[in-house]
Amino acid sequence: MASIPEKGVFLSRSLAYIFAVSMLFLILSSSLLFQFGDNSLVPSSIYNLIIVNNTPDYIQIDEISDQFEPESPPFVLSSYNESYIRSPAFCDRNQALVKVFMYDLPPSFHFGLLGWKGDQNPNQIWPNVSNLSEIPKYPGGLNLQHSVEYWLTLDLLSSVSPHASRPCTAIRVQNASQADVIFVPFFSSLSYNRRSKVHGSEKESTDKSLQERLVKYLESRDEWKRLGGKDHLIMAHHPNSMLLARKHFGSSMLLLADFGRYPVQIANVDKDVIAPYKHVVRRLDANDSPSFEERRLLVYFQGAIFRKDGGIIRRKIYHLIKDEKDVHFTYGSASSAGIRTASRGMISSKFCLTIAGDTPSSNRLFDAIASHCVPVIISDDIELPFEDVLDYSKFAIFVQSSDAVKKGYLMKLLRGIKRKKWIQMWERLKKVAPHFEYQYPSQAGDAVDMIWQAVHRKICWAHGNGVRRRRNRYRMSQRSIDS
Question: Fewer CB atoms near the end CB (10 Å): N or C, the chain?
Answer without folding.
Answer: N
